[in-house]
Design goal:
CATH architecture: 3-Layer(aba) Sandwich
CATH topology: Rossmann fold
Oligomer: single chain
Structural class: alpha/beta
Strand content: 15-25%
Helix content: 40-55%
Order of helices and strands: HHEHEHHEHEHEHEE
Number of domains: 1
Radius of gyration: 16 Å
CATH superfamily: Vaccinia Virus protein VP39
Distance between the termini: 50 Å
């Protein structure tokens, strides 16, 4: 296929061969920095996993730097909000054998990227999963699940107490959610590529 007809996901796939809805540039801009400044033993959470494209990119960047963190994947894995187009693209990227088994593809992506030992899967609703974590225990969280305004607001407020005083929040699909995100984080928020956002709470990844 020529570059003139190459799809966006195919361009991204050449750089990191695990399908993601997030652009490769945004993954690089957010997750490379997180991996660079994190420390061993930190606790990372992602909500809204799909088949693990952004989750595995972050984990791979951590491994590149010979670091080890706890990675928690939170999703009900019902794939109710995934468009037919996205499903078809992920099948085109990874193979027809995964149609109807996107959860299996996620687990395969985690294994292929060498992240199995670092990963804990929480197959449940995000707000429900937040109750599994102690307050002041999470160093980084990435929101990439529901687009329902009321749910997104409730989800963020459910997880905020679980974050350490010095921690980092990020999220995808900022343009469609800005009316929820902006009032919560205000001037502390930085928009990334008009696609995602990142917020430093306190000192962020404070160096002891």
């Amino acid at each position: 296929m020529s570059s003139d007809t190459e799809k966006e996901w195919q361009k991204f796939h050449k750089i990191f061969p695990t399908y993601a809805l997030m652009s490769i540039e945004t993954r690089q801009d957010i997750f490379e920095g997180i991996a660079e400044h994190c420390r061993d033993g930190m606790v990372f959470v992602e909500t809204g996993i799909f088949t693990g494209g952004s989750f595995c990119f972050l984990g791979s960047e951590v491994l590149k730097r010979n670091k080890s963190v706890e990675m928690h994947a939170v999703d009900n894995f019902l794939f109710e909000n995934i468009s037919k187009e996205s499903e078809d693209e992920v099948i085109e990227a990874h193979g027809e054998k995964w149609r109807g088994n996107l959860y299996g593809l996620f687990l395969d992506n985690v294994e292929r990227n060498g992240l199995t030992d670092m990963t804990t899967v929480h197959s449940m609703d995000s707000i429900e999963a937040s109750q599994d974590f102690e307050d002041d225990s999470i160093d980084f969280i990435h929101f990439d699940g529901s687009h329902d305004f009321t749910y997104v607001k409730d989800e963020i407020f459910a997880w905020i107490p679980k974050l350490k005083e010095n921690s980092i929040v990020a999220g995808h699909d900022y343009p469609s959610l800005r009316h929820v995100i902006d009032p919560i984080f205000g001037e502390h928020l930085t928009v990334v590529n008009n696609e995602s956002y990142i917020v430093k709470l306190g000192a962020g990844f404070q160096i002891d």
